[in-house]
Amino acid sequence: MAKRKLTRQQAWRIKKVQDERSKRAQQRDQKADQALTESDLGVEQQGRVVSHFGVQVDVEPHPYSAENHRVIRCHKRSNLGDIVTGDTVIWRENKDEMGVIVAVNERNNQLSRPGFRGEMKLIAANIDQVMIVIAPEPEPFQGLVDRYFIAAEHWGIVPTLVINKVDLLTSSPYQERLQELKSLYTELGYKVLTASSQTDTGMTELHAALKGKTSAFLGQSGVGKSSLINTLLPGSDILTGQLSEGTRKGKHTTTTARIYHFPTGGDLIDSPGIRELSLTNLDIDAILDGFKELHPFIGNCKFRNCNHKSEPGCAIRGAHENGDICNERYNSLWRIIDSLEEE
């Protein structure tokens, strides 16, 4: 269905409403800025954003110290742009133990997801690794797992596959598929872990993989991310959701990204659940780059504008024909590309 064309008057009214909202937001920020500036602000300090609440954020001193840990509610300067959990910032404290962020340090990387209107929204920054969680239920789909790996490669974040709820494997109709996925990604050189928060299976290995790093858990709702976090961090009380009886799909529980600290070292950014990851902001070259076994062949096609479908001398098709990329991954690659073209 064609989009309805706005009249000039309708477009003017929409712009007027948006301008008024922007003006009110600026006035609100300026008022908060002035209140903080007029207070006695202390020296500049390094900090890290541990959670986000609209125009205010919680900041802790950086680097983290368990002995002298505290969290300060801070207002951000109105000209700093988006600030997300994991950002390292420069902040100043006033006499009322409130603070103001005056600068944001450069990010090593950032994690984003699509918003309601399709725009990409930042949810976390400066992450060392993502733990991609799947389980016997809801049903594990290789295409979705590959999408997570593509996104991790694009973000520049090290991915690890975690097969959760292994206590349910013997009664799962997807036991063979999960074993195939485990073998596939292990052969590709990715770290694959198994775990169960119900039986504590694999929790020691998971703790070791998280130590000394800033990690985020990704995966479909219902795969047990929150339950894993509650086991790894007793007392954190992350909300958990049950599977829908009708669809066996999960219900979203986490509402905002937040940083938690492991007693043995390392940090966890608990991020909002992602039911289906969108890659619509990536082109075909970025999709290909997300398949690490294709890295030696990217850029080696006979024609620079090769679309890797029917042109002679295509290095990508040649890699498949020579067995350098398996059928499962090659088919998954083209399902993803075709779905993006449809979108």
List the helices and strands and how they pair.
Elements: H1 8-38, E1 45-53, E2 56-61, E3 72-76, E4 88-93, E5 99-104, E6 110-114, E7 120-125, E8 129-134, H2 142-155, E9 158-163, H3 175-187, E10 191-194, H4 203-210, E11 214-218, H5 225-232, E12 258-261, E13 267-270, H6 284-289, H7 315-321, H8 327-342
Parallel strand pairs: 3-5, 8-9, 8-11, 9-10, 11-13
Antiparallel strand pairs: 1-2, 1-4, 2-3, 4-5, 6-7, 12-13
Provide an overview of this structure.
The protein has helices spanning 8-38, 142-155, 175-187, 203-210, 225-232, 284-289, 315-321, 327-342; strands spanning 45-53, 56-61, 72-76, 88-93, 99-104, 110-114, 120-125, 129-134, 158-163, 191-194, 214-218, 258-261, 267-270. The chain has 343 residues and is of the alpha/beta class. Helix 2 crosses helix 8. The relative contact order is 0.10.
Task: Give a nutshell description of this structure.
With 343 residues, the protein is of the alpha/beta class.
